[in-house]
Amino acid sequence: MVSNVVCRWSSTIAAHPESIATAELAAAAIADKKGEAILLLDLSELLVVTDVFVIATGTSTRHVRTLIESVEEALEAAHDRRVLRREGEQYGRWVLLDYGDVVVHVFDPETRDYYELERLWGDAPRLAFEPASAEA
Length: 136
Hints:
The protein is an alpha+beta fold.
C-alpha cells in the first residue's frame, strides 16, 4: 500500500542559530586578518550535509593560510570547535575547513573567480555580515 503523504521542503527552515553564530565567528576571524569579499550563504534548505558556507578571499597563498589559521584558532578558543576535515592547505589557493554544519572556503582571487561558488549556490540566501570597524 502506498501512502498519500507528501513531503515538501519548508520555506521556513533556516540554518540553526548555533551554525550561524559559528559562521559569523569564522567570518569575523577572517575580517580581523584583512580577508576580503566575505560572504555567508545559508545552504540549510539546499544541502543536507551543511548549513552555512563562509566564503572569503585572501590576497596571496600566505594570506589564505593566515586566514585559515585565524578561523581555526577563533573557533577552537570560543566554542571548542575543531575542524573535521581540511583540504587544499598545501597549495594555499583554495583551502576548505569542514566543521560539519559550517564549511569555510578561503580562496586566492584567481581561484575564487574561476570557481564562482556564490554563483553556483546563487539560490542560497545570503546571511548579513558586517565586519567590525577598526575604530570600534
